[in-house]
């Protein structure tokens, strides 16, 4: 399903049917899910548009209320000034993005994964996060590439104490998602103090045969400035 | 270059050099207005472009403040630049301004109070545009925070203007200032229903709803053994942005799920104790059948009705309202 298509196009498997068909002067986008959900939209384009179907930042469904992703896992202890790599799962949202005249717009976003939200921090100043509970793996686990992705998280404990970690919060505005045999992200989490940590994404694919997903959360790319998220309410 | 030269010649002509009052000529006044108009045009262009550039980057409230500040800053610079053309002594204005300020302060006390309150509100930000707030008894959605007043709209779509002084000095309840908020339901089930099972069902429903927050977690518990049934309290946290939608949909989902499992919301009911024999000291407890609750409710409307006393002690007659004998 993932990839770029010239319109009109049609994709179908056991779980989903995606199509953009010509309907008179219009193009009609249709998505039919196995559960019965059907979405239809009309596109007004000359027909030169390209459609990309790929995993996008998983913070949009069922309604956009945040741009943070929180992954909770079984608590782990990391030694003082230690560096360790773990693998976690994250939920996938699939975006159908149309390109025309060098501009892009998401036509549809859907997911095969259940959605859940949480609050990171106090209700007064914290942030709403898209929540996902994952197991911890020492190597990339097998995953359904239409439902869950794999995040390689490098944990760096910069404190002189053991750190107990049970979650990571990541900012959707700097997410770099790649797809290939599975969907992957690479991130880094630095433990700064006993209550704060900093997370950031690494702009690299898990392997050379992975393709970069189209990002729908854009920021100004200033090379010398890293976009990080400071987890100030514990980890 | 020649145009500028020609323009300067025009301004040096005798008409423009004629003094109007004191040393100020018509040319000076023209320059004053030209600079002022230019300042207004530049201020408009800058504020419009700022608005376009920052629209998706800055909160609407801050965006308004920034564009207004930019507009008035450019206008003030233009005004101060233009003022020497009128040969105005700024130091004199400052002294006069002080005196005028005192007079205006007394004369327009409430206006000044509103202005100062407005400035403080902008800095303190107890409410933002789009917030759902209760100011005294008025529940509004804030649409604009102006320098003298705050404009809002009630849920019925009625325009409300509240002076800033009132907002600054009164209690404000902002329903969406915090990221998340909690709401609760009291769900009542019958005594014969399994409360533990009901809690399980409600918890599963909450787990399935994406916007019922995982943390802080929901709280579902038996809160009260009430007169007619067991009250299960359900407390749920939701993002402030969507809490009303969740609050309005979850209760019906809970009701439907409980009913699907065979549980019912109880009707008001009474347990009646009847003496079978005069000599029997241990009265028999009669629990109304589920399907006859409504009937029993009619029977117990007026237990001391004379008709009951006249009839057999064990029989119960329906009370159908006052009859002729009542009137006697």
Report low-confidence residues of chain A grouped into runs of 5 or more. Answer: none
Q: How do the helices and strands follow one another from N- to C-terminus of chain B?
A: HHEEHHHHEEEEHEEHEEHEEHHH
**Total number of helical segments of chain B?**
12
Average of pLDDT of chain A? 90
Adjacency order of strands in the biggest sheet of chain B: 6-5-4-3-7
Shape of chain A: elongated
Q: Which tags fit this structure?
A:
heterodimer, A: mainly beta, 0% helix, B: 328 residues, alpha+beta, SH3 type barrels, 4 domains, five-stranded antiparallel beta sheet, elongated, disordered C terminus
Mind sketching the topology for me?
The complex is a heterodimer of chains A (235) and B (328).
Chain A lengths: L2 E4 L2 E4 L3 E8 L2 E8 L4 E6 L6 E7 L11 E11 L4 E9 L1 E8 L2 E8 L6 E4 L6 E7 L14 E10 L5 E9 L6 E2 L3 E9 L5 E5 L9 E2 L16 E3 L4
Parallel strand pairs in A: 7-12, 13-16
Antiparallel strand pairs in A: 1-6, 2-3, 3-4, 4-5, 6-9, 7-14, 8-13, 9-10, 11-12, 15-16, 15-18, 16-17, 17-19
Chain B lengths: L1 H11 L1 H4 L1 E3 L2 E2 H29 L5 H23 L7 H18 L1 H16 L7 E4 L2 E8 L3 E5 L5 E5 H6 L2 E3 L5 E10 L5 H14 L10 E7 L4 E10 L3 H18 L11 E3 L9 E3 L6 H7 L6 H5 L13 H4 L1
Helix pairs in contact in B: 3-4, 8-9
């Amino acid at each position: 399903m993932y990839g770029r298509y010239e319109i009109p196009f049609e994709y179908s498997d056991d779980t989903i049917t995606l199509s953009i068909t010509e309907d008179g002067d219009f193009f009609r986008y249709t998505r039919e899910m196995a559960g019965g959900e059907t979405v239809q939209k009309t596109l007004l384009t000359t027909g030169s548009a390209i459609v990309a179907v790929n995993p996008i930042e998983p913070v949009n469904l069922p309604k956009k209320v945040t741009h943070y992703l929180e992954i909770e896992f079984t608590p782990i202890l990391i030694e003082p000034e230690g560096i360790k790599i773990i693998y976690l799962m994250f939920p996938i949202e699939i975006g159908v993005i149309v390109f025309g005249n060098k501009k892009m717009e998401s036509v549809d976003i859907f997911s095969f994964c259940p959605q859940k939200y949480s609050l990171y921090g106090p209700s007064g100043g914290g942030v709403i996060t898209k929540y996902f509970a994952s197991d911890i793996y020492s190597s990339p686990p097998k995953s359904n590439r239409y439902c869950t992705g794999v995040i390689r998280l490098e944990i760096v404990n910069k404190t002189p104490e053991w750190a107990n970690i049970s979650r990571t919060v990541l900012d959707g505005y700097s997410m770099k998602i790649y797809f290939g045999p599975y969907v992957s992200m690479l991130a880094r989490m630095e433990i700064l103090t006993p209550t704060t940590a900093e997370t950031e994404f690494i702009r690299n694919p898990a392997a050379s045969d992975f393709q970069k997903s189209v990002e729908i959360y854009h920021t100004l790319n200033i090379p010398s400035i890293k976009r990080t998220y400071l987890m100030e309410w514990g980890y | 270059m020649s145009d500028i030269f020609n323009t300067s010649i025009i301004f040096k002509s005798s008409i423009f050099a004629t003094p109007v009052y004191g040393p100020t000529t018509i040319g000076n006044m023209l320059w004053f207005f030209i600079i002022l108009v230019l300042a207004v045009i530049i201020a408009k262009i800058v504020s419009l472009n700022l608005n376009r550039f920052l629209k998706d980057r800055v909160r609407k409230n801050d965006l308004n403040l920034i564009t207004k500040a930019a507009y008035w800053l450019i206008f003030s610079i233009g005004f101060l630049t233009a003022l020497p053309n009128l040969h105005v002594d700024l130091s004199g204005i400052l002294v006069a301004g002080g005196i005028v300020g005192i007079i205006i302060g007394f004369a327009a006390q409430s206006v000044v109070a509103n202005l100062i309150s407005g400035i403080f509100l902008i800095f303190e930000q107890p409410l933002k545009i789009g917030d759902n707030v209760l100011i005294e008894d008025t529940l509004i959605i804030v649409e604009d925070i102006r320098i003298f007043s705050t404009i809002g709209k009630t849920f019925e779509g009625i325009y409300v203007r509240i002076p800033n002084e009132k907002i600054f000095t009164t209690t404000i309840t902002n329903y969406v200032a915090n990221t998340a908020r909690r709401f609760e339901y009291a769900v009542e089930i019958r005594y014969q229903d399994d409360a533990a099972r009901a809690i399980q069902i409600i918890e599963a429903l909450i787990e399935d709803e994406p916007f019922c927050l995982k943390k802080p977690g929901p709280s579902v518990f038996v809160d009260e053994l009430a007169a007619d049934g067991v009250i299960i309290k359900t407390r749920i946290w939701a993002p402030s942005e969507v809490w009303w939608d969740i609050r309005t949909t979850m209760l019906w989902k809970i009701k439907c799920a409980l009913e699907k499992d065979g549980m019912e919301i109880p009707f008001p009911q009474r347990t009646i104790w009847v003496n079978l024999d005069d000599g029997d000291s241990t009265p028999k407890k009669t629990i109304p059948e589920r399907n006859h609750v409504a009937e029993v409710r009619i029977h117990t409307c007026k237990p001391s009705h004379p008709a009951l006393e006249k009839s057999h002690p064990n029989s119960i007659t329906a009370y159908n309202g006052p009859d002729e004998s009542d009137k006697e």
